[in-house]
Amino acid sequence: MKLIHSLYAFGLLWAGYPRAAARPSTSAGLISWHGARFPSLNTREFQNAPIPLTNFGNNFYTTNIGVLGKEIPVAITTAHSDMWLFSSEVVNSNTTAIHAELDYGNSLVSGTIAFVNITVGPFVNVTSGMIFRGLCMLKVADLVEAFVRVDDAINMTELFDNGVYGVLGLGFENASVIQEILDENKYDATLRPHSFASSLFGSGPGISPFASLIFGRDSGSGSIQANGTFTFGTYVDTYASSLAQAVHLPVFSDTSDEDSSNGTSFPTWALTLDGLTVNGTQYTLNSSVPQVPSGKSLVILDSGYYSTIVSPDIVDFIYSNISGAAYFKEVDAWIIPCNMPANLSLTFGGQEYLMDPLDLTAIQYFRLTNGTEVTFCSNTFQSSSFRRGSGLPAADMILGLPFLRNVYTLLSYGNTVYNATTSEGPYVQFVSVTNATSASDFSSIRHRILANSPMELTPSEFIKTIRAESTNASSSSDNDRT
Ligand SMILES: *[C@@H]1O[C@H](CO)[C@@H](O)[C@H](O)[C@H]1NC(C)=O
Ligand SMILES: *[C@@H]1O[C@H](CO)[C@@H](O)[C@H](O)[C@H]1NC(C)=O
Ligand SMILES: *[C@@H]1O[C@H](CO)[C@@H](O)[C@H](O)[C@H]1NC(C)=O
Ligand SMILES: *[C@@H]1O[C@H](CO)[C@@H](O)[C@H](O)[C@H]1NC(C)=O
Ligand SMILES: *[C@@H]1O[C@H](CO)[C@@H](O)[C@H](O)[C@H]1NC(C)=O
Ligand SMILES: *[C@@H]1O[C@H](CO)[C@@H](O)[C@H](O)[C@H]1NC(C)=O
Ligand SMILES: *[C@@H]1O[C@H](CO)[C@@H](O)[C@H](O)[C@H]1NC(C)=O
Ligand SMILES: *[C@@H]1O[C@H](CO)[C@@H](O)[C@H](O)[C@H]1NC(C)=O
Ligand SMILES: *[C@@H]1O[C@H](CO)[C@@H](O)[C@H](O)[C@H]1NC(C)=O
Ligand SMILES: *[C@@H]1O[C@H](CO)[C@@H](O)[C@H](O)[C@H]1NC(C)=O
Ligand SMILES: *[C@@H]1O[C@H](CO)[C@@H](O)[C@H](O)[C@H]1NC(C)=O
Ligand SMILES: *[C@@H]1O[C@H](CO)[C@@H](O)[C@H](O)[C@H]1NC(C)=O
Asked: What domains are there in the chain, each with its CATH number?
């Protein structure tokens, strides 16, 4: 069984949500520093331009921030509100004596809370301490960020192996674990920076309080933009006109359920989902969150998650009708023929958003014990034991990158930033970037990838082979012990 588990330790990363954790720090995951250095930032002309995102194998996306005169990549996540940086990135930061841990469920970082001036994107002037964005100019001193200066990390190797030593959270200030810990330590609120988004938008006039994101898809073909872009207070030109017509989806807020044993309702980028359709058949949605209207579900947008978490019923609804697909019970996963598509669309605010079938199955490679490498495809909509009751916010689904690659997303912070100039609550807008025509490229793209991949076993062959290997492995290790 061990073999199967390591097989499914593919991808990233963290699943779940950070919370102030009472668990003791451990040195088990202490990583050694071998970080890539980045060239120091050149002075560039002011440009009202999007900030590039770098796509790491569709698993996470990074943007560069300027810290203490260096430009370093950090993974961005919409589901969390805190920033952390590995200590070697921030040797001279202004560090408090306050210990903090960010527990993401499957991974954890710990260190001390520190403050640092940061800039975002390449269109900044680190030397002069200025950040330029749109028509405004901010003193970097106003963009001081509290972060966890991490000395110890567990299960973050996927980031570290790629030279990424930090995470930047785009969540709401009220969900910040750092702020919570500073509160507990009675740290003077007037000496304390705000969370990133709140700080960026609240520090002065000029930047409209919204971010927008587009995540490129690495489909192995090169014909599709693989990276992505990211803006603050400005739009990506291509989508600006469609955005004007896109419905405002209010962020779900649920104060009545706060701190219930079923999960903590901290403010997060959560939306009510109106519909889920596979090949024209509508799934009947429901919700475990009492405040969600019947026939709908509550979903959290998580740009830091490579997968999408839904109920087991929905996983089966999506994959069980795909011809040739087989359920691999031991690892709770579907194995799907890599060239078989399904049409999944999600409906928000009465508008249907089609997903590219490339985002429904992930190509994986696995080396059999006889040395042969094989290709297989598995489900990207997964069920998970990361449910309510383990410090998670109340929600029915976590919509990660597989969905987010299909939309241009605008996150409007509204009145949640400090010093807000609007009374409007936060909302999300989506502009679809996938249509039936672009989705129909699936076959040719997959065909091209498979032509350059090791042989693909049929799902049932694959499962049979792994089961046989696993049985042999456990019986041979039993033999070893006796
Ligand atoms: C560190 O932070 C404290 C409190 O915010 C401040 O008084 C001090 O000037 C800061 N030091 C540096 C080097 O930024
Ligand atoms: C690290 O990941 C493994 C496999 O996903 C998991 O079993 C383990 O509990 C994780 N460790 C921590 C501290 O979360
Ligand atoms: C960047 O800062 C340096 C040093 O203060 C200054 O000489 C330069 O003009 C600045 N560049 C821009 C584009 O503002
Ligand atoms: C941020 O920059 C300002 C101006 O350069 C400086 O006074 C301040 O101490 C810096 N704060 C931190 C936390 O480094
Ligand atoms: C609040 O916003 C006003 C202008 O909108 C700005 O002048 C002020 O500096 C801001 N307050 C803080 C603490 O940044
Ligand atoms: C994506 O970004 C990386 C690093 O920023 C760059 O090397 C690569 O060429 C980019 N890929 C595409 C397809 O633009
Ligand atoms: C929490 O869960 C329990 C048992 O699952 C349920 O009886 C209760 O109604 C739930 N409370 C809320 C506020 O959802
Ligand atoms: C939602 O529907 C599924 C499938 O009908 C069912 O198994 C589940 O218990 C329902 N959940 C709630 C909270 O009603
Ligand atoms: C959806 O339709 C496609 C053809 O359009 C078919 O190949 C596929 O098997 C269907 N999937 C499901 C889940 O019904
Ligand atoms: C290894 O096993 C697979 C699955 O049984 C088989 O298809 C492949 O031919 C084998 N390779 C070798 C080198 O025996
Ligand atoms: C954030 O929390 C404070 C204090 O609990 C509360 O007064 C405020 O309304 C909250 N803001 C939002 C946007 O939830
Ligand atoms: C479909 O999407 C592609 C790629 O995004 C775009 O070039 C094309 O114009 C779209 N077609 C329609 C009918 O919207």
From this structure: 16-30+46-209 (2.40.70.10), 228-472 (2.40.70.10)
